[in-house]
Design brief:
Rossmann fold; 7 strands; single chain; alpha/beta
Amino acid sequence: MRRLLLVLLISTPAAAWATQSEVLVIGDSQSYGSFGSRLLGQLRDDNKVSTSYYSRPGSGAKWWLNGDKAPEDWGSWNAPQDESEVRVPQALATPKIEDLIAKHQPELVVVQLGGNMVNLSNSTIRAEVKQLVAKIRTKGSNCLWVGPPPGDARPEPRFSEFYKVLKESAETGGCHFVDSRALINPVPHGGDGRHLDTMKGGLKASKQWTAQVSETIVKSLRRSAATGSPDSKAAPSKTHHSAPPSK
């Protein structure tokens, strides 16, 4: 049963309604790093939101549909609410999204994926994203998709083209979309060009990114509580943050 407060919203403190909400977050290696650890803490500790978090480095949308497993030991992280947290260096099978939704009954599913999908064909990206979003929405959960952060290994014009396809595919199915490029300023450089934790100034950027994503999640829960219905059921949602201007 969804634990979501639908009445007395105006007169009820934010902490009170937040404790009534279940949030499920799935992600790739960015979630396995500082972004995921900090986001989980901010949602649970700062905003008192009941949150379950799962990360599979190397994953894209397809993994969470099929239960795929990384070809190498890139690590795995399970942090279900009210259960023991498991963070291991081994590659564990990816839990299927429908199984996670059945287990946690989330009001909101946050999808932090995309970095491992950049080099897929546009048609494959569309198909896999739409299928994942459909799984989430047909199970009755709201959806918030967080796009990947920028880096030196994300060359243009492909990265912008990829972002356009990712955004359109997520929104078509009724999933809110967050353009992470607009949340990180200045853009860090160096490292492996993909993971913020490896870049010069990347930990600061990761902290900035986390804070704004956490704020967006809380706003989404508040909006859902105010309307008493899923955010994007009536029509595809609009992007929370605009992309930076082209250079």
